[in-house]
Amino acid sequence: MARRSNAILGLALVVLTAIGAVMAEKSAGCGKEPTIKSQQYTMTVNGKSRQYIMKLPDRYDKDTPHKLIFTWHQRGGSAQKIVNGENINQGGALPYYGLNALANNTAIFVVPNGLNSGWANSGGEDITFFDQLVKTVEDALCVDTNLRFSTGFSYGGAMSYAVACARPKVIRAVAVLSGGVLSGCSGGNDPVAYYGQHGTSDSVLNVSGGRQMRDKFVKNNGCTPVSPEPQPNGANSVKTVYKGCKEGYPVTWVIHKGDHNPSQTDSGSSTPFAPKNTWDFFSQFT
Ligand SMILES: *[C@@H]1O[C@H](CO)[C@@H](O)[C@H](O)[C@H]1NC(C)=O
Ligand SMILES: *[C@@H]1O[C@H](CO)[C@@H](O)[C@H](O)[C@H]1NC(C)=O
């Protein structure tokens, strides 16, 4: 009898787990009238005043769990420049790194502003900022807590990497564009889905640094290393999807021949490839 009820309990757990895997995990803000709008806010983190800009979908639905995407700016940048976008012919990025244009009302964007225009993350204070933002936003808005993402170029890539290292259970995937280890890597022993993009001619943060960052997650995610190292195909980027990774922890790497720039294009195209690559990587998770 006891064995039989254990078997039934076991079956119930299997069924519940299977349901959990397919259903969105709703944040506390689901079903509530939104108390956050598309505008700039301030919060106090470790006694310091911190600014961030929120961007809700034009057709925000309080009952639909949304993706939550953090977009961190580059050194000398600002949250406002991420919102506005910068001239892509002068090394800038499209608004929200081009992701809002692809999101079709499915994503909420958090655009944090750095202290001294960067992400030094002294004593982990920018990770604490991230933690507080997740809590504040998810209490007010409807987020799928399985679908939190982070991206950025350069220093913003460094900050996304720091988030992957320190908050592997919070963040579903990161996209690091021409990053370096500038914001630290506290932890860094757990798998996180990882998209990396770097140029072989990067004169600011060299490509070997970008490859080392990628290789941490190739290892953590259990993927099979690729040898020889992928190279650009002339003027075109080359995308490598790693094989053998643990279920749910893919790694994609894009190598191009360009310099330190988030808006590289392939030959014959005027559309930067980072936005679609990033969006495809993030939206494979449901
Ligand atoms: C955007 O989302 C709406 C509503 O889900 C859908 O009907 C429409 O086809 C989508 N558009 C694109 C371009 O994916
Ligand atoms: C790349 O940058 C790192 C970190 O600044 C440095 O230690 C390394 O020597 C550089 N490697 C090359 C090949 O320039």
Automatic annotation (TrEMBL):
Gene3D superfamilies: alpha/beta hydrolase. Its main location: secreted. Its EC number is 3.1.1.73. Keywords: Carbohydrate metabolism, Hydrolase, Polysaccharide degradation, Secreted, Signal, Xylan degradation. It is an enzyme of class 3 (hydrolase). The keyword Metal-binding does not apply. It is found in: Secreted. GO terms for molecular function: feruloyl esterase activity. InterPro entries: AB_hydrolase_fold, FaeB/C/D. One of its GO terms (biological process) is xylan catabolic process. It catalyses: feruloyl-polysaccharide + H2O = ferulate + polysaccharide. This is feruloyl esterase. The keyword Hydrolase applies. Residues 1-24 form the signal peptide. The lineage of its organism: Eukaryota, Fungi, Dikarya, Ascomycota, Pezizomycotina. One of its GO terms (cellular component) is extracellular region.
